[in-house]
Amino acid sequence: MMKRMIPCLVGVLCVCSCFGSLADTMYCTDGELTSREYDYAVELEKGETLIVAGGGADDITAWDYTYLEVQYTSALSNGDWNTGGVCNISLFENSELLFQGGLTHTLSVGGNATATLSGGSIDYIRNYQVVTEGEEAIAIICQSGWSWINDDPLQGIEGYWLDGNAFSIEFINNGVYDPVYMNLNIIPEPATLVLLGLGSFLARKKK
Q: How far is residue 120 CA from its own chain's centroid?
C-alpha cells in the first residue's frame, strides 16, 4: 500500500512545487508569464511589471503604478478558461495595460487606470470610472470603419485591428459609472500614424 502511495505523493509535491515557483517567477523575479506557465490569481503591487508572452492566468489584478503588457497568451482547450488565456483582467488605481494580443474574457477598468488595446480577442469591457471628456482611459487602436454592435454604443464595438484580424467587444454597463463607450478613445488611423499616436498616448499617461 505504501509503495503505491509514494509515487502519488511525489506527483502531488511536484505539482505544488511547480505552481509555487510560477508564483515567484511571474512578477517577483523576472516579470514574465511565458509559455506553459499558468496561474489562478496574480496580483501586481506598487511598481511591479508583468509581461504575458505565451502564458495564461485565471485572474490578473493590477494595483497602484503597475504595468501589465499582454503580448499573446496560451490557447484555450475546448473553450475552458481554466486552460489558457487570461480570463479576467482588473485594473485599479494608477495601473496601466498594453494589450497587443491573446485572449481575455473580461477587462475591468477602475480608479485612474488606463488601457491601450491594439489586438487580440476581448469578450467584454467593464467600466468603473467617472469619465471626463478628453481624458478617456481606454484607447482602441484599429482600422477605420469600426462600428457599434447593432448600431448601439451601449452594446459594444466591432471592427478590425491593424493586422487585419476582426474584433467584437461587448460592454458591461452597471448603471453606477459612466457607460463603457464614453470611456473610449478610438484611434482609427493608418499604421504609420498609429505608431506615433501610441507613443504619445503612453508618454502622456505616464506623466
A: 10
